Amino acid sequence: MENTVVYTNMNYLPVSKDSLNQAAQILRNGGLVAFPTETVYGLGADAFNAAALAKIFEAKNRPHFDPLIIHIASLDTLEKVADLSILTNETRQKIFTLAENLWPGPLSIILPKNKKIPGIATAGLETAAVRLPDHETARELISLSTGAVAAPSANPFGSLSPTRAEHVRDKLGDKIDMILDGGATRIGLESTVIDITGDSNSASVKILRPGGTPKEAIEKLIGQVEDGAPVSDVSGGLVSPGQLKSHYAPHTPITALNKEEIIKKAYEKDSAFLFFDDQSKNAWILAQKPPKNAILRVLSETGRILEAASRFFETLHELDNGKILRIFVQLAPQEGLGIAINDRISHASTKK
């Protein structure tokens, strides 16, 4: 018999026409709604309502120097949240090329913000990260509300991102007006964030946060893209979420190891080992001969990057149960979505 979710709270509802209408009304009234996207679950508020946006920071215990991502449901809404008129023709062309080919999708683009977007959404900066999600429920909810929803991941600040509604309920349930349950997310990692606006001295395009859209896909469309670096000085505010050195972390300490290192790593009692694929796990078992009760997990038995990404946060949620002293995590191949997986491992393994 399959497990089924029992909804005992009317504010924790499966996605339906009625629940979407209820959720949209909550957003229009200045409330908070957690909803699924193709990346992770988002904690949404009306992007034009400063008081509603303040509730996101309070619920997540999120510092105000960390900006939010503005989600839209169609390209028609873009000019309501961004001011493209101050950009060069070349930059606008790059933006439209990316939007036409990679939206809807897990790509957020830093753009000059429309004055209608409150400063609290952008850490006081004149730019905002904007994306059009590739998830029917998310787009429908945004369309039914005000057309633009600011939504960081629906988790306490700095902790593991939620890929299921249950993750949101367990961590933030009493702080949110409604949680829409749309099942497990498809990609399981946050969106890629790029800064395409440059500055007076540069028109370069920079990845500020690796994510669900691989660098290779962006470069195929607009040419070379630079890699950003974690930020230590936040006095001027962050340009993008996910730039802090320590982020996306479970309570249990994490040690990151490459394939060679993890195969050589001796078994440790009360620790878990998270392998990228079955080949690595089997090589480790052969080399280390662990006991039968060793806690072993694999992100993708056959080494498929998308499957590994979709399982990453969910597996860490499972292992972060207070019974394990440390999690040894194997890095993914440094290509495609593997870059985003390794970015999350790196942030999670950095001590606060």
Write the element-wise H/E pattern from the N-terminal end onward. Answer: EHEEHEHHEEHEHEEEHEEHEHEHEH
- The first-level CATH class of the largest domain is given as Alpha Beta
CATH level-3 fold name of the largest domain: DHBP synthase
> What is the domain total for the residues?
2
End-to-end separation: 43 Å
Q: Runs with pLDDT <50, length 5+?
A: none
As laid out across the biggest beta sheet, the strand order is: 1-8-2-3-7-4-6-5-9-10-11
> Structural class of the secondary structure composition?
alpha/beta
Tell me the CATH architecture of the largest domain: Alpha-Beta Complex
| Helicity level | 25-40%
Number of strands: 15
Rg, rounded, reads: 20 Å
What is the overall silhouette?
Answer: globular
- CATH homologous superfamily assignment of the largest domain: DHBP synthase
What is the count of DSSP helices, taking H or I runs of 4+ residues?
A: 11
Characterize the largest beta sheet: strand count, sense, and whether it forms a barrel.
11 strands, mixed
Mean pLDDT: 91
Strand content: 15-25%
What order do the helices and strands come in, and which of them pair?
Elements lengths: L11 E3 L2 H12 L4 E3 L6 E5 L3 H11 L8 E4 L5 H4 L7 H14 L4 E6 L14 E5 L4 H9 L3 E3 L14 H8 L5 E4 L10 E4 L10 E4 L5 H8 L3 E2 L26 E4 L1 H6 L6 E5 L2 H11 L6 E4 L6 H15 L6 E5 L6 H12 L4
Parallel strand pairs: 1-8, 2-8, 4-6, 5-9, 10-11, 12-15, 13-14, 13-15
Antiparallel strand pairs: 2-3, 3-7, 4-7, 5-6, 9-10
Helix pairs in contact: 1-5, 4-7, 10-11
Description:
Helix 9 links the parallel strand 13 and strand 14. This protein is an alpha/beta fold. 31% of the residues lie in helices and 17% in strands. The protein has two domains: 216 residues, DHBP synthase (Alpha-Beta Complex); 95 residues, Rossmann fold (3-Layer(aba) Sandwich).
